Amino acid sequence: MVVNEVFAEMGFDAEVDILPWGRGFKWTQSHQYLGTFPYVRSPEREKHFYYSRPINYIPMRLVVRNDNGISSLADIHKKRFCFPRGYGISLQVEGLISQYQLRLHRAQDNAACIGLLEKGRTDLAIVNDYNMHLYLGHNGTNTPVKTLDDEIGGMPLFFIISKQYPDAQNWIKRFDEVLKALRENGKLAEIERKFLDQIDKAKSN
């Protein structure tokens, strides 16, 4: 994991707890944790948190029903777009909504958005390439939904620290310095290759 490797290089044995998004975010705000990840950048969060350099980039695609006549981005103008409640709307997604005048509504999580899509109660959802097999089945034919060929682009994800955390700016500065060094010496590329291998194995099971 990228964050673990960064802290190891900084001389710390980081303990990473996997928590619901809202709880991890709240506990980082209250300084129970030094930081949290992975988060997208949003203007609202930037008021309260320092952002690291991107720790990775997630390829994103839109999901549509097979029978709704949408085959490319050219067909999505003013369509209904489901996005998980509580997820930050990244600059990339915000730009997509604005450019195509999408009608935004929210559901509890990605699975709920896909459920609404399958029932015809929304026109679009969004998933990342790494976990879309969870929604589309092993070969993409087991559900009434599909991904569009158009890539939305790589969504950057960040490690964030509350601006009120003691010495927060120096923590982020040091984190970024080590992250940059790991990218330059090839260690990050090695971590990313291992991660993608794990994803490929998960898709084939």
Summarize the structure.
The protein has 205 residues and is of the alpha+beta class.
Break the fold down into its secondary structure elements and pairings:
Elements: H1 2-9, H2 21-29, E1 36-39, H3 43-46, E2 49-51, E3 56-65, E4 80-84, H4 91-100, E5 103-107, H5 110-118, E6 125-128, H6 133-136, E7 145-162, H7 168-184, H8 187-204
Helix pairs in contact: 1-7
The arrangement of helices and strands along the chain is HHEHEEEHEHEHEHH
Calculate the terminal CA-CA distance, rounded to whole Å.
22 Å
Please tell me how large the radius of gyration is.
Answer: 18 Å
Q: Please provide the count of β strands.
A: 7
Structural description of this entry:
This protein is an alpha+beta fold and 205 residues long. The chain is 39% helix and 24% strand. Strands 1, 2, 3, 6 and 7 form a 5-stranded antiparallel β-sheet that branches. Strands 4-5 form a two-stranded parallel sheet. Helix 4 links the parallel strand 4 and strand 5. The longest helix has 18 residues, at 187-204. It starts with a helix and ends with a helix. The mean pLDDT is 89.
Could you name the key traits of this structure?
205 residues, alpha+beta, 5-stranded antiparallel sheet, two-stranded parallel sheet, 39% helix, globular
